Amino acid sequence: LFVGLCPILALQTIHGLEPVSLEAAETKVEQERVKLQETVSKLATLAFDKCISYPGRSLSSSEQNCVANCVGRYFDSGEFILQYFQKKARESADSSGF
Fold first, then answer.
1. Which residues are within 8 A (CB) of 13 and not within 5 positions of it... i.e. 6 or more apart?
2. Are residues 50 and 42 in contact, defined by beta-carbon separation less than 8 angstroms?
3. Triad 46, 49, 54: Cα angle to 5°
4. pTM, two decimal places
5. How confident is the model at residue 54 (pLDDT cuts 50, 70, 90)?
6. Alpha-carbon radius of gyration of the chain
7. Could you read off the pLDDT of 26-53 as tens digits, one per residue?
8. Helical packing angle, 7-15 and 22-51, nearest 10°
9. Per-residue pLDDT band at 97 (split at 50, 70, 90)
10. How far apart are CA 15 and CA 52, in angstroms?
11. Neighbours of 67 (CB within 10 A)
């Protein structure tokens, strides 16, 4: 059905979204890629500062566990915040009659 359409345009067509130019879609993808890289870099810095006492050739098991816990807490916090704001948005929509 959507053979030959770029994936972004196909998704827009399926979901009834307003078409955007390929350039605008590529810009958005690039912005998201940069944001993801910044997040990963920030997370790596935080975990390194908290968990690594002295850089060496490998991580000790306690350092590995600490890094894993930092990453887990970071993603858990992000998920909690996302769910909180989604709940608030639903409550707001429900109270306004939408």
1. 2, 5
2. no
3. 150
4. 0.55
5. confident
6. 21
7. 888 888 889 888 988 888 898 999 999 8
8. 100
9. low
10. 47
11. 19
